[in-house]
Amino acid sequence: MKTEIISTEAGDARITWHPAKKPRLVLAVSHGAGGGIEARDLQALARVLPGHGVSVALVEQPWRVAGKKLAPAPKTLDVGWRGVWPALARPGLPVISGGRSAGARVACRTAVELGAAAVLALSFPLHPPGRPEKSRADELLGSGVPTLVVQGGNDPFGKPGEFPDGSFELVEVPYGDHGFAVPKRAEITQDEAVTVITDAVVKWVGSLG
Question: More exposed terminus of the chain, fewer Cβ within 10 Å: N or C?
Answer without folding.
Answer: C
